[in-house]
Amino acid sequence: MSLKPAFAAVLRSVRGAQHRTQENLADAASRTYLGKIENGASSITLDKLDELADALNLSPLTLLALTLSVRDSESPQDRLERACEEVRLIEDRVGMQAIQAQLVGDKLTKRRPNRPADLEKLTLVLACKAEGLTQAATARKLGLNPSTVQFLWTRALPSPE
């Protein structure tokens, strides 16, 4: 089962248990949009999830835990226990400081776009460069696309860890 019908079932049930109508949640979303969500015809954004959870006096985490529990046919408690363990592992491997370092205030930090280089090709291109070959000559010698050679030309081999 995908998340859309699972979330739809959770939202319908929670809203019904609170004796709320779609109109009662107008501060979070229009009735039309809620209808689409509750019929599994529309996905929800994180910001909208936060607004809906707030309108239902719940945490977004609660709605997500319930949704994942429905999708995976497991208890919400089991799902949350697994999530807590996953959080502990991530904290051990990554650390909250590393995650927070990606933000300045409430904005993401800028980072240079980067795609990984093929280490074998990079080594060959840098060897040709060291021999004094031009990029065009390197592309011909190695049988590589000139744009690949250009991409690798200014790169450096990663330092051994």
Automatic annotation (TrEMBL):
<dbReference type="InterPro" id="IPR001387">
    <property type="entry name" value="Cro/C1-type_HTH"/>
</dbReference>
<feature type="domain" description="HTH cro/C1-type">
    <location>
        <begin position="11"/>
        <end position="63"/>
    </location>
</feature>
<dbReference type="InterPro" id="IPR010982">
    <property type="entry name" value="Lambda_DNA-bd_dom_sf"/>
</dbReference>
<protein>
    <submittedName>
        <fullName>Helix-turn-helix transcriptional regulator</fullName>
    </submittedName>
</protein>
<dbReference type="Pfam" id="PF01381">
    <property type="entry name" value="HTH_3"/>
</dbReference>
